[in-house]
Amino acid sequence: MLKKTNSIYRADYLNLIKNFTTHEQQEVLNTFLKFSQKNLPLIEKCAWERHCDPKLWAEMAELGCFGAHIPEKYSGTGLDEISYALMMIGLEWGDSSLRSNASVQNALVAYPILSYGSEEQRVKYLPKLATGEWIGAFGLTEPNHGSDPGSLETKAMETEGGYILSGSKQWITNANIADIHVVWAKLNGMIHGFLVEKGRLGLTAVSMSKKDSLQAGHTGEYTLDEVFIPKENLLPESAGLKCALKCLNEARAGIAAGIIGAAMFCYETAWDYVMERKQFGIALAGKQIIQVKLADMATAIAQGLSTSLHLAELRERKAADFSHVSMLKRANTKIAREVASTAREMLGANGVSSEYPIMRVLKNIESVYTYEGTYDVHGLIIGNKITGIPAY
Ligand SMILES: Cc1cc2nc3c(=O)[nH]c(=O)nc-3n(C[C@H](O)[C@H](O)[C@H](O)COP(=O)(O)OP(=O)(O)OC[C@H]3O[C@@H](n4cnc5c(N)ncnc54)[C@H](O)[C@@H]3O)c2cc1C
């Protein structure tokens, strides 16, 4: 049985959304929340069958979420930061895979083209990404290099008319279905971003079919066996690891907000359950320990939502630095992990049944807690900023 209620506003105990966002911004949240609510049965089916139904991708595209951070002149919708955060919350209320699709497309593929690309590259690729006609992927992680991408081994060699890329990438969202890959590789020892289109000779991308998390989304791995790409596919301003890290920073900001949507979903599901489920003669909601759990969950969500809106506001004023983003990616994924775990416990045995959605969410959160910098690595980023001493 799927959950039946749908009041994200009940999980917003401090009424932050109603009081600190505009009517237009709330409309963005409501649009994506409605999309998630309507599609919950399909999301469940996808997670069970381990794929993303193209219908979900098409509807997300129609709602404009793939061009949310792309300017209108390249067919995007150019949302403000608070609307963007609320969009991510609405999507992740449905499933972290959906929010991941939006994160990758906007922050990890469109952003580097927008920031480090030539005008010809922007005109060629951004409208296709904004409208969802093309799916993008961002390849930084390799089989032997995750938290330490500076050591990556994929190489680019200059050749007549372009570059030859060799290496492999693993744990890449949408890599197996992507039309375009942003591939990070070393050219003369320095990391650069390259655009590799699907179908290039020597590019072999496959699904990582044993993944037990984000099952309603795709994750792939690929090898680059002396793949030739033309000169114009180098992102001209992308030299240095910091360029790749800036993309991650963009994506982390969306994750920091979005994951609170997953926590809200778990809170609502648990609330529904304990209001109805009777043990020892009355609804579980009437038991002290259950009430304290609900209070702890609502408090943690309020903290995460409040700081997410604050971060979005700082980003709108260009006043947020990368360590602020790290702090909230770290703190909010932990909040969501704890809220989801408590919700699972409150559903008893039903908490481990796929008849109820909590295990799906809990499994998703394990990836979100790990990708785009693990919880501990973000602790080290913040520690470095606080002390000035890198301890990686
Ligand atoms: C579903 C999913 C989707 C992903 N999508 C993408 C994508 O689209 N593009 C992409 O490039 N990558 C992607 N990733 C990869 C992700 O970013 C990496 O998994 C992540 O950065 C961690 O790297 P790792 O798995 O190699 O772990 P490792 O770096 O091997 O870390 C293992 C453990 O060691 C800890 N650790 C690492 N360094 C230190 C240190 N200095 N001190 C103390 N502890 C440390 C970590 O916190 C972790 O607990 C994805 C991952 C997943 C799970």
Proportion of beta-strand residues: 5-15%
Name the CATH class of the largest domain: Mainly Alpha
Structural class: alpha+beta
- The SSE string, one letter per element, is HHHHHHHEEEEEEEHEEHHHH
> Ends: how far apart?
45 Å
What does the radius of gyration come to? 21 Å
The number of domains: 3
Task: Catalogue the ligands.
Answer: flavin-adenine dinucleotide
Strand runs, count? 9
Provide an overview of this structure.
α8 packs parallel to α10 (322-346). The mean pLDDT is 96. It is built from twelve helices and nine strands. The chain has helices at 8-11, 16-20, 23-49, 54-62, 81-94, 96-116, 119-130, 241-276, 288-316, 322-346, 358-370, 375-387; strands spanning 136-139, 155-159, 162-173, 180-187, 190-197, 203-207, 219-230, 278-279, 282-283. By secondary structure, the chain is α+β, with helices and mostly antiparallel strands. The longest helix is centred in the middle third of the chain and has 36 residues, at 241-276. It folds into three domains: 8-130, Butyryl-Coa Dehydrogenase, subunit A, domain 1 (Orthogonal Bundle); 136-239, Beta Barrel (Butyryl-CoA Dehydrogenase, subunit A, domain 2); 242-387, Butyryl-CoA Dehydrogenase, subunit A, domain 3, CATH 1.20.140. The strands form two sheets. Strands 1, 2, 3, 4, 5, 6 and 7 form a seven-stranded mixed sheet that branches. A two-stranded antiparallel ribbon has the order 8-9. It is 53% helix and 15% strand. Bound molecules: flavin-adenine dinucleotide. Flavin-adenine dinucleotide binds at residues 104, 138-141, 146-147, 171-173, 213-214, 219, 367, 370-374, 376-377, 392.
